[in-house]
Amino acid sequence: MNGSSPMRRCALVCLAAAVFAVAGCGGGKLVKVKGKLVLPPKVQLEEKDSLQVSFTSIAAGDKPLNTAANVDHSALTFTINGPEGKGVPPGKYQVDVTCTPYAGEPKAMERKKTLDALFAPFNGGKSQLTVELSGDAEQTVTVDLEKKNVGK
Protein backbone atom coordinates (compact mmCIF):
# COMPACT_ATOMS: atom_id res chain seq x y z
CA MET A 1 0.00 0.00 0.00
CA ASN A 2 1.24 3.46 -0.81
CA GLY A 3 -0.85 5.27 1.79
CA SER A 4 -3.41 6.89 -0.54
CA SER A 5 -6.95 5.63 -0.32
CA PRO A 6 -9.36 5.47 -3.29
CA MET A 7 -11.50 8.16 -1.62
CA ARG A 8 -8.55 10.51 -1.34
CA ARG A 9 -7.58 9.96 -5.01
CA CYS A 10 -11.19 10.58 -6.08
CA ALA A 11 -11.30 13.79 -4.03
CA LEU A 12 -8.04 15.00 -5.63
CA VAL A 13 -9.32 14.25 -9.15
CA CYS A 14 -12.57 16.12 -8.43
CA LEU A 15 -10.66 19.06 -6.96
CA ALA A 16 -8.38 19.24 -10.03
CA ALA A 17 -11.40 19.13 -12.36
CA ALA A 18 -13.06 21.95 -10.41
CA VAL A 19 -9.89 24.09 -10.54
CA PHE A 20 -9.64 23.68 -14.34
CA ALA A 21 -13.33 24.51 -14.78
CA VAL A 22 -13.07 27.69 -12.68
CA ALA A 23 -9.82 28.72 -14.39
CA GLY A 24 -11.60 28.73 -17.72
CA CYS A 25 -9.89 25.85 -19.48
CA GLY A 26 -11.79 25.31 -22.70
CA GLY A 27 -14.31 28.05 -22.06
CA GLY A 28 -14.95 31.66 -21.22
CA LYS A 29 -16.95 34.54 -22.60
CA LEU A 30 -17.15 34.79 -26.35
CA VAL A 31 -18.14 37.77 -28.49
CA LYS A 32 -20.03 37.75 -31.79
CA VAL A 33 -19.04 40.74 -33.88
CA LYS A 34 -21.30 42.31 -36.48
CA GLY A 35 -19.71 44.88 -38.69
CA LYS A 36 -20.04 47.37 -41.49
CA LEU A 37 -17.27 48.01 -44.00
CA VAL A 38 -16.69 51.45 -45.52
CA LEU A 39 -14.58 51.28 -48.69
CA PRO A 40 -12.43 54.04 -50.13
CA PRO A 41 -14.14 55.84 -53.04
CA LYS A 42 -11.60 54.45 -55.54
CA VAL A 43 -12.69 50.84 -54.90
CA GLN A 44 -15.19 49.62 -57.45
CA LEU A 45 -16.40 46.12 -56.59
CA GLU A 46 -17.61 43.64 -59.14
CA GLU A 47 -20.25 41.05 -58.34
CA LYS A 48 -17.91 38.06 -58.10
CA ASP A 49 -15.11 39.74 -56.14
CA SER A 50 -14.20 38.09 -52.86
CA LEU A 51 -14.17 40.64 -50.03
CA GLN A 52 -13.07 39.44 -46.58
CA VAL A 53 -12.50 40.89 -43.10
CA SER A 54 -10.30 39.03 -40.62
CA PHE A 55 -9.56 39.50 -36.92
CA THR A 56 -6.21 38.36 -35.45
CA SER A 57 -5.62 38.53 -31.69
CA ILE A 58 -2.64 40.71 -30.74
CA ALA A 59 -2.81 41.16 -26.96
CA ALA A 60 0.21 39.85 -25.08
CA GLY A 61 -0.36 36.44 -23.57
CA ASP A 62 -3.29 35.59 -25.85
CA LYS A 63 -3.35 32.27 -27.61
CA PRO A 64 -3.07 33.39 -31.27
CA LEU A 65 -6.45 33.43 -32.97
CA ASN A 66 -7.26 34.34 -36.55
CA THR A 67 -10.82 34.26 -37.84
CA ALA A 68 -12.37 35.73 -40.96
CA ALA A 69 -15.73 36.50 -42.53
CA ASN A 70 -16.88 37.16 -46.06
CA VAL A 71 -18.43 40.57 -46.63
CA ASP A 72 -21.94 40.82 -48.08
CA HIS A 73 -21.46 42.98 -51.19
CA SER A 74 -24.90 44.56 -51.23
CA ALA A 75 -24.82 45.89 -47.66
CA LEU A 76 -21.06 45.75 -47.01
CA THR A 77 -21.72 43.90 -43.75
CA PHE A 78 -20.00 40.96 -42.08
CA THR A 79 -20.26 38.80 -38.95
CA ILE A 80 -17.23 37.40 -37.12
CA ASN A 81 -18.42 34.18 -35.48
CA GLY A 82 -15.04 32.73 -34.55
CA PRO A 83 -13.49 29.43 -35.59
CA GLU A 84 -16.24 27.33 -33.99
CA GLY A 85 -19.16 29.65 -34.78
CA LYS A 86 -19.61 30.68 -31.13
CA GLY A 87 -17.71 33.98 -31.17
CA VAL A 88 -14.20 35.18 -30.29
CA PRO A 89 -12.69 35.91 -26.88
CA PRO A 90 -12.67 39.54 -25.70
CA GLY A 91 -9.37 41.31 -26.33
CA LYS A 92 -7.41 43.36 -28.82
CA TYR A 93 -7.45 42.37 -32.50
CA GLN A 94 -5.71 43.47 -35.67
CA VAL A 95 -8.25 43.90 -38.46
CA ASP A 96 -7.28 42.97 -42.03
CA VAL A 97 -9.36 43.49 -45.17
CA THR A 98 -8.71 41.76 -48.48
CA CYS A 99 -10.37 41.93 -51.88
CA THR A 100 -9.69 39.38 -54.60
CA PRO A 101 -11.21 39.55 -58.08
CA TYR A 102 -12.80 36.43 -59.52
CA ALA A 103 -10.05 34.74 -61.55
CA GLY A 104 -12.45 33.76 -64.36
CA GLU A 105 -13.33 37.35 -65.24
CA PRO A 106 -11.72 39.20 -68.14
CA LYS A 107 -8.93 41.50 -66.95
CA ALA A 108 -8.80 39.69 -63.57
CA MET A 109 -5.01 39.97 -63.34
CA GLU A 110 -5.12 43.70 -64.13
CA ARG A 111 -7.84 44.23 -61.50
CA LYS A 112 -5.89 42.13 -58.98
CA LYS A 113 -2.91 44.49 -59.27
CA THR A 114 -5.17 47.51 -58.76
CA LEU A 115 -7.02 45.95 -55.81
CA ASP A 116 -3.79 44.71 -54.21
CA ALA A 117 -2.44 48.27 -54.28
CA LEU A 118 -5.65 49.74 -52.82
CA PHE A 119 -5.92 47.14 -50.03
CA ALA A 120 -2.17 46.80 -49.26
CA PRO A 121 -2.31 49.06 -46.18
CA PHE A 122 -5.08 46.90 -44.70
CA ASN A 123 -3.80 43.33 -45.06
CA GLY A 124 -0.85 40.98 -45.05
CA GLY A 125 -0.02 41.73 -41.43
CA LYS A 126 0.62 45.40 -42.31
CA SER A 127 -2.75 46.67 -41.17
CA GLN A 128 -2.74 49.37 -38.51
CA LEU A 129 -6.45 48.80 -37.93
CA THR A 130 -7.20 47.47 -34.44
CA VAL A 131 -10.23 46.98 -32.24
CA GLU A 132 -10.64 46.19 -28.54
CA LEU A 133 -13.56 43.84 -27.93
CA SER A 134 -15.13 43.98 -24.47
CA GLY A 135 -16.90 41.07 -22.80
CA ASP A 136 -20.33 42.02 -24.20
CA ALA A 137 -21.90 39.02 -25.99
CA GLU A 138 -22.60 40.97 -29.21
CA GLN A 139 -20.75 44.01 -30.50
CA THR A 140 -21.01 46.14 -33.61
CA VAL A 141 -18.01 47.71 -35.32
CA THR A 142 -17.43 49.87 -38.39
CA VAL A 143 -14.25 49.19 -40.34
CA ASP A 144 -13.70 52.43 -42.23
CA LEU A 145 -10.95 52.10 -44.82
CA GLU A 146 -11.44 55.66 -46.01
CA LYS A 147 -10.74 57.07 -42.52
CA LYS A 148 -8.34 54.20 -41.69
CA ASN A 149 -9.98 53.33 -38.39
CA VAL A 150 -12.30 50.88 -36.63
CA GLY A 151 -15.08 52.36 -34.52
CA LYS A 152 -17.71 50.89 -32.25
Word description of this protein:
The chain is of the alpha+beta class and 152 residues long. The chain has one domain (29-151): Immunoglobulin-like (Sandwich). It is built from two helices and eight strands. The chain has helices spanning 6-23, 108-119; strands spanning 32-38, 50-57, 66-70, 77-80, 91-100, 130-133, 138-144, 149-151. The strands form two sheets. A four-stranded mixed β-sheet has the order 4-1-7-8, with no helix packed on it. It has a four-stranded antiparallel β-sheet with strand order 3-2-5-6. The longest helix has 18 residues, at 6-23. The model is unreliable at 6-26 (pLDDT under 50).
Task: Describe the structure using short key phrases.
single chain, 152 residues, alpha+beta, Immunoglobulin-like, four-stranded mixed β-sheet, 2 helices, 32% strand, elongated
